[in-house]
Automatic annotation (TrEMBL):
Top-rank lineage group of the source organism: Eukaryota
Organism: Penicillium daleae
InterPro entries per the UniProt record, alphabetical: NAD(P)-bd_dom_sf (IPR036291), SDR_fam (IPR002347)
One Pfam family it belongs to: adh_short
Protein name per its UniProtKB record: Glucose/ribitol dehydrogenase
Taxonomic lineage of the native organism: Eukaryota, Fungi, Dikarya, Ascomycota, Pezizomycotina
Amino acid sequence: MTTKITEIVDVEDLSRPTNSNEMTNFVPSLHHDTYPFITPTGSELVTKSIFITGASRGLGRATAIRCAKAGCAKIALAARGSLAGVVQEIEETVREAGIPPPQILPLQVDVTSDKSVRAAAKAVYEAFGGKLDILVNNAGHFTKFKPIHEVDPRNADTKIVINLSSMATNCLTYGASAYQVSRFSNCWFSEFVARDYERQSVSLCTLDKANLPEDTVVWLCSQRREWLNARFVIGNWDMEELEKKKSEIVEKDLFKYRITT
């Protein structure tokens, strides 16, 4: 029994949360799967164009499919691996839903290569007539957990509208410095993007069952919400309840990283 208690304490110590609990409980209701208020109906993204990185699997792939279900007109997909599977699934999804098929642009992209990212941006610009409504920056470089001095650094230069991250940004987990610091830096970078391009909307989502973060992304993209500009959003929150706290969020300038006294 003593050994088990020690193991639990050790695990908690490895991931030292800061104010994660307070943030998680900001709204009364939490979700771990999609719910009616954010579920796409087929009209949310009609006429819109979107570029999703890391789209061959996981969150990126599911986001692409849900955006197609929301009626998105133009979808650019970026990944290092094959995109044939997600393209086929998008086509099947819109066919079953009776939605006009979107223009799909699959691109082989390595986000750790500036040259590759620039080539992808040019391809999207040319294919979509110089217009891009939504950018979902999902791809990331994930290394084996190591102390920071043992990790080979990687760089990427991407402007962000919606930046997927993790609640891990609010914890200190031994050996996870490369991942958690890079995800945390996205939050700060988002604020600079919002300052430089004030008509951008930047938010973050966490990972649960597949449809929850993807439908949250669709909800965030469905209309401009300036009151969320440069703030992070926890995907488990009930977005309808979050909207009711709009005044409090703006007045207190919540959900940005700050040093307070």
